[in-house]
Amino acid sequence: MALTRLTPRLLCLLLVSCRSFSFSMNKLPFSKRTPSASASASASVSANIVSPLASASTSSNTEAIIASSSWEDLEGTLSTLQAEHGYSDDREPVLTLYRDTNGWCPFCERVWIVIRAKNLPYRERLISLFAKPEWYKEIVPTTQVPAVLFHDPASADEPNARKIVWESKDIMKALDDQFPSTPRMVLDTPEYQAATEKIGKLATAGFGFSNTKNTTLVEQEERKVLFLEALDELEDDLVARGGPFRLGKDFSGVDAEMAPLLEKWRWQFPVSKEFDITEGRPGIQKWFDAMDGFAPYSERVMGDQYSWVATASMFARFFGDAADPKVLATIERSDAEAKRLMENLSSSSSSPSNIDDKCEAKFAFEAAAKVISNHEAIASDCSNKDPKSQVHISRSGSEVIADVLLSYIASLLMNEGDKAIKFVQSEHLQLPAIEDGDKSDMAQAAR
Question: Are 217 and 211 in contact (CB under 8 A)?
């Protein structure tokens, strides 16, 4: 399916669940068992939470399985669980963030980080870059993302009084002005201005280094030199100011601008360029360590290594020359690394280092929420016979079967909560009750 931004924790939970389920489809004898059928599974499932597939354990008809499942029930159960564990935010949203559907837009990401750094309650509306709705084009003159609609409770009866701002840097400034009691992100200082200008220079150099199609070897080397100079300048500035963030000890809007760039290069360049931006650069590594521990970023906005690596392969297929040995080598390295990362996640001997045991249930519930809210689109993509991207990946032949799988995974994530990782790695998964002929389609959907 088209890759969408997930935090490492969400991605780990979803990948482990689907990957382990895919392995189970291949390794276990197929039978009409349900998640609650085995003693090992039922012992860890809350007494008042039942998988939507459990009632179908005696059915041999796939359509009956679908009829017995209720996404509405799953959503209600999830809301109850989140409230019981203190994971729900009941604050009234003060703004709406319009961002790209997949979460890869760097301009959206910088605004997203700033909103979370200010701890503002917000709504999200996802805008497809390939099919922007007419209503969005009418309210945003540029038709681009991101945009932010500021809610004004005092003007609830006057919708036109609501303020909408576009262009990422303008939004960041507006957030400071609209919520003056929150940490200020955009600073009116020479140091801040100089830092943002250098980030712009680095971004331009990095784009040139990344995209070398239709360039000569001499031009490619020149672009590499420019990028290394800009990267080393960033390193020197980080070390000189003591870090861990760009301007010193506190996170600022400069870090929000840096994050989408460095995050992508951190994971993609080792496979696309055979180059590690942190090697020999302790200041940049220290910055990454700080960002990895910065909850407004790491708990929701930060992209994951697997998706960036898999995307490197996708971009090479889209924009590279299929006859170029370097492009083919990039695709081969990216695919091999993506496969390795996925297999490591699903290994029973693997204990993912990016999973905080104290927060694991929170992310299991959030992963379940993503599946529940997007199950129709996911099932459709899993079975799309004419995909727009990742066309080399085989699809399930049945959208119905893909939807059964998704309800199973969502139920498992909710039932197991903070034990979800260990449970799916135990290989005690029980298969939903579907007909034998649908086994292959479900395994493909899981993959």
Answer: no
